[in-house]
Amino acid sequence: MREFNISFLETNRERRSAVAEIVSCLLFSCPNDMESAIKTVVTTFLNSSSGKENLNGSGFQKLVKKKLGGLMQDADRASAVKEMQQGLDVNNDGKVSFQEYLTLIGYLANSLSESKTGTSANAS
Amino acid sequence: MEVNTVNSVLTFAHYPCTSKHTSATMPSELETAMESLIKVFHRYASRDGRNGTLSRRELRELMENELSNFLQSQKDPAAVDKIMKDLDTNGDGQVDFEEFVSLVVGLSIACEQCYQMHMKKMGKK
Asked: SUPFAM superfamilies, alphabetically (chain B) (predicted)?
């Protein structure tokens, strides 16, 4: 899977707060379809992690089972979800960070899009 | 900050996407959100030229209509062009769905940071 390029978002701390200010509209004003979809992606994680930056193993199990059970086979098989969690855990801390979670969302959105359109993007 | 991705997608091979939505279970809000991202992308991608990818013009239209809040806050008039350049990692002048997902990921990260800041502010009060 390709590395997501987010260089259009400033990464140093000063500018990051500016970006966060900017994006506050996504969370706190009335969003349209796409903005509310992004909001859902973010709040689903935050609700599961109680606002923390990481999700522990059992929290991840619950999230997958409750929120992704319609998209993924084996979502209710603990060993399979654990295996997937280890695949996502690039920094090997045993937890699922928000970015690791987004990797999964990105992967699923791609698969779903491919299955809908019948195309397969060149997986590099 | 970089978004690391799983290079060994092998573990995911066990989880083929299935359209279980035909079954009795209602899709979750998260699943509906993913569907709506796909719908938005294809609605604009089919406007002109190559279907299934966004041209520069289609990306501009998408951002102007669907991310108006975000775009309005970008003071740089060349913002869309810059974003296009960043997203188009294979350099074909088009944004495919996988490249579009990077935009969603980037916005989600900014959104999450905003939330954390908001919570910190609330905590101080």
From this structure: EF-hand
